[in-house]
Design goal:
Pfam families: APH (PF01636). This protein has about 290 residues and is of the alpha+beta class. It is built from nine helices and nine strands.
Length: about 290
Amino acid sequence: MRDTSTAAAVGAAVALAEEHGLRAREPVVLKDSYNVRVHLRPAPVVARIPTVTALGRPDPEEALRRELEVVSYLHRQGTPVVPPSALLPPGPHLRDGFAVSFWEYAEPGPPQEVTPEAAGRALAALHEALRGFPGELPHLGAALDEPAHLLRLLTDDLTPGVLDRLREGLAESGARLRARPAVPVHGDAHAGNLIAAEGGLLWNDFEESMSAPPGWDLACLLRSGRIDGAAAVRAYGADPASPELRDCLAARAVQGVIWMLARARRFPDGRPAAEDALRGWLRARG
């Protein structure tokens, strides 16, 4: 059976880096949640290795390839993003069953609070830059296709009744979202994906980039627990109570519950929180 532990993911990234002439003498895991992110110290390079997110993607390598294309385009346009690494081929690479990409390490700047106004304006500027992206993005892929794939994996974890309710919620959201005009979006534009670096705020983590209503990213921002989401949406120039945003919030809610349940497969200590979120979602649906 393939080793899918954090140590194995880090080992795959370190081995790949060394094959390209970069020795990571002091690798440090920055985050281990839906992906493993490891700083390949002393080099200013971060490796991202999908772990939980790979469960929802039949081809995790393709998601990384799309992310690299989107971010490379934005970086060339001067958009403030964390760019792919220039010290070795950014990928995506495959090693020991893991997909791996390499990114520039964003040196933390002075401690600063990401204000709602700054987040809203940053998202408006990002959407403007994304409109020129020349490549193809999956229509509602992260919003609908990935959760649907996860539900097939969760069949043994949930009762048939709960599975049916989640499928119904996803289908209802899909019908509403498909009826709305779509543009390129970040896909996971919550305040936690704005990094306070030395040069200012940088957008990070574009692996869920897709074609969707702009309200999808606004729903991510609105649901963020780090800032006043409604104020951020207003700073963007949108109405937090708009019908589009209401539909996107409903879709984001069911997507989030499904991902939490999937994450609990790798991190069992997260199952109580996932089950609480599921119960809350079911109550809200009545």
